[in-house]
């Protein structure tokens, strides 16, 4: 029986449409800056939040009584996959993403879990033969099971490190088999709860060694996709070793991995780290580390990562502005790492949530493209930093403190404050959103 019965594939109906199940702004074939919107945005559905999450929270159990959630066996895993591919047909997005634990039931042994996993991957491949949808990235869930309560690659128990390494190998093999364009390491518990029982130096060394093994294995099997890590500050550990973009870059640089690994940046994690999404994207772009994004939002009153679908065009526009400034996506894309509210029970809610998110992203990207083509923000930046383009300023950077001191004492420099024009620039952005 179809889970999404009577829901037709979504169509672009334009801004005046009043339908809950239509695109108002996302026209996949619309050309922006020489590229189709679908090719700019590269949307992906997150298998875990859309089909594995059951609607629970810390104070209450599941509210989503989906047909495949009644038991953990392969029949239910296949039923879940059937529903997932129904949604893909309705949305028409080009990609999806998974964790291993989302798609297969846990076995009594590693070998049994692996057998289940390989079987469902083949089931996916059979469904993908007649569809355009592809795999944006795969990853391993190394945070939910109790064996990972003290981390995966950073665990004090070497057996957990070994289990994690075997898990990632299996997931990388499956990602390559499916033609995945990236592989993500999502370090959900790669951090600590208390320093009283933590050797940070050993844990970071082990985490780096693990990542080096992943990179080596990528080259061994000829995987042409990108290895990504996802910055996060405290989810759920008190402190994560991959706290934000700057921390991740410092970590990668220290261990000589900055040319092998890029970043998958999530809006919700950026906020938890005390940054804006555009800050993290701009920094990743400046460092040459931008790989892919998880698009969601937080409830700003909750103080936690609530993983809601995006609905704020100005925020999204600035995010895509810096994505486009960095050259846009190559292997990466826009993954909806977002979930329904636990009171949104109906299949239509899941379709409408994605439709709205895709519309918001389309509006944001078109606004970002318009700002880039208008050149207003870039012109303001060029004007503000124009002094650094003079021969005198360039020479100063090649000089020394003593020479600069002599010039200032001689009266050759008299700085006068200049307006940063923040409000004018904010008004400028609002013209486009």
UniProtKB/TrEMBL annotation:
One of its GO terms (biological process) is D-xylose metabolic process. It catalyses: alpha-D-xylose = alpha-D-xylulofuranose. Its cofactor is Mg(2+). It is an enzyme of class 5 (isomerase). Its EC number is 5.3.1.5. It is found in: Cytoplasm. Mg(2+) 1 binds at residues 230, 266, 294, 337. GO terms for molecular function: magnesium ion binding; xylose isomerase activity. GO terms for cellular component: cytoplasm. InterPro entries: Xyl_isomerase-like_sf, Xylose_isom_bac, Xylose_isomerase. The keyword 4Fe-4S does not apply. It comes from the Bacteria. PROSITE patterns: XYLOSE_ISOMERASE (PS51415). Keywords: Carbohydrate metabolism, Cytoplasm, Isomerase, Magnesium, Metal-binding, Xylose metabolism. HAMAP family: Xylose_isom_A. PANTHER family: PTHR48408, XYLOSE ISOMERASE. Homotetramer. Belongs to the xylose isomerase family. This is Xylose isomerase. It comes from Marinibacterium profundimaris.
């Amino acid at each position: 029986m179809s889970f999404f019965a009577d829901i037709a594939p979504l169509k672009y109906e334009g801004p005046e449409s009043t339908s809950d199940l239509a695109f108002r702004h996302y026209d996949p074939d619309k050309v922006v800056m020489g590229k189709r919107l679908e090719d700019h945005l590269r949307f992906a559905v997150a298998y875990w939040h859309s089909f594995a999450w059951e609607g629970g929270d810390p104070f209450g159990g599941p509210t989503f009584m989906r047909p495949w959630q009644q038991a953990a066996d392969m029949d239910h895993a296949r039923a879940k996959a059937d529903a997932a591919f129904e949604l893909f047909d309705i949305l028409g997005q080009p990609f999806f993403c998974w964790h291993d634990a989302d798609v297969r039931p846990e076995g009594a042994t590693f070998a049994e879990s692996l057998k289940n996993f390989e079987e469902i991957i083949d089931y996916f491949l059979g469904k993908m033969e007649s569809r355009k949808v592809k795999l944006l990235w795969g990853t391993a869930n190394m945070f939910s099971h109790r064996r990972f309560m003290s981390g995966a690659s950073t665990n004090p128990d070497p057996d957990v490190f070994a289990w994690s390494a075997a898990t990632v190998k299996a997931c990388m093999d499956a990602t390559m088999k499916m033609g995945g364009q990236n592989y993500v390491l999502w370090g959900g518990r790669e951090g600590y709860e208390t320093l009283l029982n933590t050797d940070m130096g050993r844990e970071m060394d082990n985490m780096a060694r693990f990542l080096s093994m992943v990179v080596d294995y990528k080259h061994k099997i000829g995987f042409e996709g990108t290895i990504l890590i996802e910055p996060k500050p405290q989810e759920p550990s008190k402190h994560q070793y991959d706290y934000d973009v700057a921390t991740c870059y410092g970590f990668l640089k220290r261990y000589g991995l900055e040319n092998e690994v890029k970043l998958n940046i999530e809006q919700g994690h950026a906020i938890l780290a005390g940054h804006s999404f555009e800050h993290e994207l701009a920094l990743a772009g400046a460092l040459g580390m931008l790989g892919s994004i998880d698009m969601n939002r937080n409830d700003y009153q909750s103080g936690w990562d609530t993983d809601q679908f995006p609905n704020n065009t100005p925020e999204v526009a600035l995010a895509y502005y810096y994505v486009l400034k960095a050259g846009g996506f190559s292997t990466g894309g826009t993954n909806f790492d977002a979930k329904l509210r636990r009171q949104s029970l109906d299949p239509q809610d899941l379709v409408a949530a994605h439709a709205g998110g895709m519309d918001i992203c389309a509006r944001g990207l078109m606004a970002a493209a318009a700002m880039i083509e208008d050149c207003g923000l870039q012109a303001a930046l060029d004007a503000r930093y124009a002094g650094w383009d003079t021969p005198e300023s360039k020479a100063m950077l090649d000089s020394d403190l003593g020479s600069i001191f002599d010039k200032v004492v001689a009266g050759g420099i008299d700085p006068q404050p200049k307006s940063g024009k923040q409000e004018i620039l904010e008004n400028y952005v609002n013209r486009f959103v």
